[in-house]
Amino acid sequence: METCEEVVDFGESGPVRCSRCKGYINPFMKFIDQERKFICNLCGDREDLVDSRAVGVDGGMKSGGEDS
Ligand SMILES: [Zn+2]
């Protein structure tokens, strides 16, 4: 039996959090650079919003999007 520590599995990506102050992303944070980055409203740090999975989507897409 573990303690009552909450373990929430958000999968690989998980909720976006500020790596500096560990604050969760919220509407008060300011998104910059085409929403690929955000400025934490809690500590003012600039964080990358893109994760590893989001990189290279264009190159990895196969053709055949049209289903005719
Ligand atoms: Zn922060």
UniProtKB/TrEMBL annotation:
Organism: Gossypium arboreum
Positions of the Zinc finger Sec23/Sec24-type domain: 15-49
Protein name listed in UniProt: Zinc finger Sec23/Sec24-type domain-containing protein
Pfam families xref list: zf-Sec23_Sec24
Transmembrane segments: none
Highest taxon in the source lineage: Eukaryota
